[in-house]
């Protein structure tokens, strides 16, 4: 079963605009991560936020986490055409002895030049 | 450069045939994973291995088998018992998490399997 679900499923914006993607999850988590996937390629880790953190920044990326609402958001500021990709959230459950990550269905972002 | 190498990148299989996808890493990671991705979908865990000579089923293990004889290698066999094997297969690895449990995955470039 999918632990995380991204919203929206697809997003199209103009270059220079900000892109916001949301992720909801069902059970308590240890941490939440965001990954990026270019078409037909593997995933690349972007940023990790722990369950005791509320906000984290990395370059043009800003991630927030609201454990009371079981949700996270990824904001990409001043988007570029090169940001066109699919973005996935992944969660590691607190009681997961296998240390596995569970991925959501992803948001497909298109940034038009 | 350290990384994960998956091969082949593209593979075609006739129905009823078993195929093996290769995954090799030189990151000295203990844990390795296989995920399946269908078009426009997220990733689903097939098998994972936290240590050599040990592996566990993931959410969709039926019709797949793995081995972990070496730390660097985690091959996945798609057997004829897998009824819908056409998909994009991703291998990943990670090092043991910190006490707080961080587990960041490094992925290979993927293998696309098509059943004819």
Catalogue the unreliable spans of chain B. none
The end-to-end distance of chain A, rounded to whole angstroms, is 36 Å
Identify the most extensive interface between protein chains: A-B, 27 and 33 residues
Beta strands of chain B, count: 11
Helix count of chain B? 0
Share of helix among residues of chain B? under 10%
User: Multimeric state of these chains?
Assistant: heterodimer
What Rg of chain A do the Cα atoms give?
Answer: 13 Å
Structural class of chain A: mainly beta
Sketch the topology of chain A as an H/E string, one letter per element. EEEEEEEEEEE
β content of chain B, as a range? over 45%
Please report the distance between the alpha carbons of the first and last residues of chain B: 36 Å
Largest sheet of chain B: 7 strands, mixed
What shape does the CA trace of chain A take? Answer: globular
Count of alpha/pi helices of chain A: 0
The pLDDT mean of chain B sits at 91
In one word, what is the shape of chain B?
globular
Described by strand count, sense and barrel closure, the largest sheet of chain A is: 6 strands, mixed
Mean pLDDT of chain A: 90
Give your account of this protein's structure.
Chain A has 113 residues and is mostly beta strands. Chain A has no helices and eleven strands. Chain A has strands at residues 4-7, 10-14, 19-25, 29-37, 43-50, 55-58, 61-66, 71-76, 85-93, 101-103, 107-112. In chain A, the strands form two sheets. In chain A, strands 2, 4, 5, 9, 10 and 11 form a six-stranded mixed sheet that branches. Chain A starts with a strand and ends with a strand. The mean pLDDT of chain A is 90. Chain B is an all-beta fold and 116 residues long. Helix content of chain B is 0%, strand content 48%. Chain B contains no helices and eleven strands. Chain B has strands at 4-7, 10-13, 19-25, 31-37, 43-51, 54-57, 64-66, 76-78, 87-94, 106-107, 111-115. In chain B, the strands form two sheets. In chain B, strands 2, 4, 5, 6, 9, 10 and 11 form a seven-stranded mixed sheet that branches. Chain B has a four-stranded antiparallel sheet with strand order 1-3-8-7, with no helix packed on it. Chain B starts with a strand and ends with a strand. The relative contact order of chain B is 0.32. Chains A and B meet through strand 4, strand 5, strand 9 and strand 10 of A and strand 4, strand 5, strand 9 and strand 10 of B.
């Amino acid at each position: 079963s999918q632990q995380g679900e991204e919203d929206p499923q697809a997003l199209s914006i103009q270059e220079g605009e900000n892109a916001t993607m949301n992720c909801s999850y069902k059970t308590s988590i240890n941490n939440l991560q965001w990954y990026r996937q270019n078409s037909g390629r593997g995933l690349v880790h972007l940023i990790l936020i722990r369950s005791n953190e509320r906000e984290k920044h990395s370059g043009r990326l800003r991630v927030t986490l609201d454990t009371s609402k079981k949700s996270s958001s990824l904001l990409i500021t001043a988007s570029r055409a090169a940001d066109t990709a699919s973005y996935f959230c992944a969660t590691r459950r607190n009681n997961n002895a296998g240390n596995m990550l569970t991925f959501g269905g992803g948001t497909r972002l298109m940034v038009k030049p | 450069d350290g990384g994960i190498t998956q091969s082949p990148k593209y593979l075609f299989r006739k129905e009823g045939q078993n195929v093996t996808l290769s995954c090799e890493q030189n990151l000295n990671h203990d844990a390795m994973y296989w995920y399946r991705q269908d078009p426009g979908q997220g990733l689903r865990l097939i098998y994972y291995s936290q240590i050599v000579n040990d592996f566990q089923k993931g959410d969709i293990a039926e019709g797949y088998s793995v081995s972990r004889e070496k730390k660097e290698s985690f091959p996945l066999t798609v057997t004829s018992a897998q009824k819908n094997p056409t998909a994009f297969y991703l291998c990943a690895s990670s090092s043991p998490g910190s006490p707080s449990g961080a587990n960041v995955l490094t992925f290979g470039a993927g293998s696309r399997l098509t059943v004819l």
